[in-house]
Fold this protein.
Amino acid sequence: ESDASEVEGPTVPVYACQRRTALPNWNQILTDALEILAEEAEFGNSEGRSLAFARAAPVLRSIPYAVTRFEDLNSLPCFGAHSRKIVQEITEDGSSVEVQRVLHSERYRTLKVFSGIFGVGKKTADRWYQEGLRTLDDLRKKEKKLNRQQEAGLQHYTDLNSPVTRLEADKIQHVVQDAVLRFLPGAIITLTGGFQRGKQSGHDVDFLITHPTEGKEMGLLIKVVSWLSSQGLLLYHHMKQNSYKEPTQMSVQASKDRLDHFESCFSIFKLDTPNEQMESSSTAAENIRNWKALRVDLVVTPFSQYPFALLGWTGSKHFERELRRFAVHERKMILNSHALYDTKQNVMLPAHSEEDIFAHLGLDYILPTERNA
Ligand code: 8DG
Ligand code: MN
Ligand code: MN
């Protein structure tokens, strides 16, 4: 009989797309800490440093137990000296000096607020910080030149930074479904992103729209968006044309392209929130706002690209990044939200389902609810 302490659990694979990462997260305190450092490094443009933390945290998300001792890390991949030290600090002292320093730093806090504005990326946030701006009021007062998207982001900042619930996502789905089917009966509308992974809340609602007859989806989105707009349901939107050219071959660059080329609409919906509480006190009912601003992404895909789009938009972001990295380095294949290409045989690999894509890659199928890396 072997000693219990020598019994090793199954080894954790290196790539996140080889792991099943279900909710809940047993190591939230540790993953929060590592993700704060990853974000701080990203703010500082230290891509390598950021990736090291960003790869360590999901390992802890994937294991179904809490790491309570630094030694527990010995059997886990993707942990460099720095990430190990953070875990050691937290398991031994309850918190990490470095993480606390970041959390309290003016720069991190400011960049966090600014990059939380819809339409403001890390570069812009940093530029504003360098210019001495610190708060949302600074942005409003200084009458900073904001573009239309940032203007809307600032205006709806509070709503857009409060989590979208599953119930709200379902309500939006009904609205979108109704609008799409009005113009294209037989269309398929799929809720993707975090909600597809089983999350109970998210920062936006993501939809893929397609039709089994390829070509029928063309021209649909503009009609849908115009109609939604005419109903007063959109507080903001911008559209992107389809810019995809079906390639005969793909380069590694195609898998590094973070943005895809589908026709899409990035919007802020106005969702009615009828006041469900009873007429309570005498406070003026007119002062109670009965709507909420919500971020919604609508993406239209030709049916033949739908499985790739679904895999790409279901996320998580880290899971996607790892799928593409695995494809290139382990299989010499190029994956993006449109297609999969085998560089050894020089062929595009078609797929009818997400399962087909995992099979092409020689990976076990991972359910959407297990992609919370
Ligand atoms: P959350 O909204 O619940 O917070 O999380 P999420 O649903 O996982 O994140 P997301 O920011 O809404 O992104 C959903 C997935 O969409 C994510 O894996 C990245 C993927 N995605 C693409 N193409 C594009 C694109 O062109 N723009 C954006 N923003 N996301 C894209 O596949
Ligand atoms: Mn989302
Ligand atoms: Mn989104």
Observations:
- The first strand starts at residue 164 and ends at 165.
- Confidence is low (pLDDT under 50) at residues 1-6.
- Residues 41 and 50 are 5 Å apart (CA to CA).
